[in-house]
Amino acid sequence: MDTMESLGYLKGLIDGLDLDEDKKETKVFKAIIEVLENMNDDLDDVYEELEYQTDTIEAIDEDLAELEEDYYGDDDDEDWDDDEYEEFEIECPNCGEIITVDEDTVLEGGIECPNCGENLEFEIEYEEDDE
Known about the structure:
Blueprint: H1 3-16, H2 24-72, E1 87-91, E2 98-102, H3 103-108, E3 110-112, E4 119-121
Antiparallel strand pairs: 1-2, 3-4
Helix pairs in contact: 1-2
């Protein structure tokens, strides 16, 4: 039984009690039913908006996937080798967190630790060729 059906059932039970309309208790029951009906209407509005937002997000996701396909091409057609892209694991001296950074980040000279916010600086040492 969904919420609207339950409300209808509850309303029928209260009506079946054949309560005197002028009594305070009857007015309270009727007010409670009205509040529950309003809440149900509000929830229906939220569900409708959520469904609309979900549909919109799915449409955006599909459009983005098409754009990525057009821009980047098919992943199976990659010409670059994974070995060309280096990653480095660095331990934060402040909190001990292991952070994986790419070559571009190292070349930039530093990064903020995502765990503690410590500024980590990288020094690049180049090997000299003995020729």
